[in-house]
Amino acid sequence: MTLHDLDPVLVPPKRLAAIGIAAASKSVEFGFLRDQLELSDSDLSKQLKALSDAGYLTSKRTGRGKTRKSWFAITEEGQAALTAHAAALQSLLAPQQAAADGVT
Amino acid sequence: MENTKSGGSPPPFDPESHLSILEEAQKVVADEYALDFGPSWYAPVLATMIGGLTLFNNAQSELTNLLYLGAAGLATVVYVVHGSRRTSIRPRTTGRGFAGIVFVCVVLLAVVIAWGTAISTIGYEDFVPVWATVGWLATTALFLGIRLALKAVRNRRPALG
Q: Cα B33 to chain center, whole Å?
């Protein structure tokens, strides 16, 4: 495994965190992601758009006016991509761990 | 995000930190579900719910029974409806989430038992209304304390990413 095996869409940490939260939940609200990731609305929108454009997230709007909320949920494609990305990260880590074990 | 605008080369890619982001993301969801008490006015609403249900069970006239049941029912509806609308995350069912639900149920049961014990010790006729008010205030204070403790734990969590 090399860095090229990583999913380029999921490499930015904020994007990875966003999809990680979406993967752990049935759906997550925009404001919750913004507060947890400490991002501006525009920055988070960009990250979520990249994930949605890749087909990893779906979005749904509920409510009207002040109660309007945007909800995001991970797709099957997104779940598969995240699983593969996590496996690639584990593989990259394995030689480092083996080297560390060899030293100690 | 890595800062690559300062002129130096970007920091080496660290797979361990990326894996820890994924682990933290899972914890964030489970913690949010377990540690989010809601607004402070949930405390008196919950106290009304518990007090109403306990007194309803012990009241001796039908009208009083209905009044207590009505108060408990109204409090439950307000809590459930508002709670479902204000939630910002819908968690998947996990062992950690289930443990949180069990903990909440145990706390609620303990408070109900405390109310029941107080009523049977003091006697229903003497219990209402002064002791009921004291019990309601104590229960509200207990939930406010729980809310503060949960908030403190929640606020210690660093931002992700």
A: 9
Exposure string of A37-73, with b = 16+ CB inside 10 Å and e = fewer, is bebeeeebeebbebbbebebbeeeeeeeeeeeebbbb
> What span, in angstroms and rounded, lies between the C-alpha atoms of B161 and B28?
12
Q: In this structure, which amino acid lies at residue A89? A: L
CB B145 within 8 A of CB B52: no
Q: What are the mean pLDDT values of chain B's consecutive 10-residue runs (161 residues total)?
A: 51 85 87 83 94 81 88 94 81 67 83 85 78 89 93 78 59
ipTM of the complex: 0.84
> Nearest chain A Cα to B93, which residue?
A25
Q: Nearest residue on chain A to B20, judged by CA atoms?
A: A17
Question: Chain A residues with CB inside 8 Å of B92's CB?
Answer: 24-26
Q: Is the peptide bond before B129 cis (omega within 30 degrees of 0)?
A: yes
